[in-house]
Write a structure and sequence with these properties.
Blueprint (H helix, E strand, L loop, with lengths): L2 H13 L1 H14 L8 H10 L1 H15 L7 H18 L4 H26 L3 H20 L9 H8 L1 E2 L2 E2 H19 L1 H11 L1 H6 L4 H27 L10 H11 L7
Antiparallel strand pairs: 1-2
Length: 263
């Protein structure tokens, strides 16, 4: 093998390492079951991880901008028990629960971003603190109890099927397509790439860095809220212990997907 061919092969492997890892893992697990590569098994895997994928969409925007949010799981805990409390005392219609969950996600993510901007520190440092705050509030308002009573129409979000395909899988795929178009075909998507590349250069190019960060926080909040709703709908109950730890799964998935932790 000549030197040029070897260099091209090394670059190919380095630039596509996540895909090679996925291929190796898939091959290994294929020996455990003859049905591993079946369509139904793939759909089941997507269904089980739909809420993680949805959350990852929003946090991808944050990481592309060169930041890391460690409070995601604790936000999901607080949002989940808040929805449980709404159901327990008010029993609102499903659309109110959806709106409440999304709005709470936006508020919590924007609070993190505002603190990072105003205090001029990294989002990582801010979320190390706010994660404990969100978790404390979650345990306080829930009384460390499990909250139930969610309607079947609410559970349909993660437990329902359209034909033979889970609704959660359809929703996840639609959101992935929409946000992929947003990133690649809009000015705001270009701004996110610019922030992750060089924030000072983006500012000198005329981009309102603060406005872009607030936009990123809002988008991340929408998806954290949606993923929280999907998680609660999947489990059928809400408790403070459900959610924490998801942030590491999300961040690991994003890194394996090729997004750099440095933007």
């Amino acid at each position: 093998m000549n030197v040029n061919m070897k260099d091209r092969l090394v670059r190919l492997v380095r630039n596509n390492m996540p895909w090679f890892i996925l291929l190796v893992v898939a091959v290994i697990f294929s020996f455990s079951s003859s049905n591993f590569f079946s369509l139904q098994n793939i759909i089941n895997i997507l269904n089980q991880n739909a809420y993680v994928i949805v959350c990852s969409i929003g946090i991808t925007f944050i990481m592309m901008a060169g930041q890391i949010d460690l409070s995601v799981g604790y936000q999901m805990s607080l949002i989940g028990v808040s929805l449980g409390i709404l159901v327990k005392y008010f029993d609102p219609p499903v659309w109110v629960l959806l709106l409440a969950g999304i709005l709470m996600g936006v508020v919590l993510c924007e609070l993190n971003m505002i603190l990072a901007v105003k205090l001029r520190i990294t989002l990582l440092m801010v979320t190390v603190s706010t994660s404990m705050l969100y978790q404390g509030i979650s345990y306080t308002v829930s009384g460390s109890k499990t909250l139930s009573g969610f309607s079947d129409s609410f559970k349909f979000i993660s437990q329902g099927y359209i034909g033979s395909i889970p609704f959660a899988v359809i929703l996840t795929l639609v959101l992935v397509v929409i946000m992929s178009i947003f990133l690649t075909k809009t000015y705001w998507g270009t701004y996110i790439y610019a922030l992750g590349g060089n924030e000072d250069a983006a500012r000198l190019a005329g981009i309102s860095v603060t406005a872009a960060k607030m936009m990123i926080g809002a988008i991340a909040g929408i998806f954290v809220g949606l993923s929280s709703i999907m998680l609660v709908a999947r489990v059928g109950t809400a408790q403070s212990g459900v959610g924490p730890g998801t942030e590491f799964t999300v961040i690991t998935g994003i890194l394996l997907g090729g997004v750099s932790a440095r933007g």
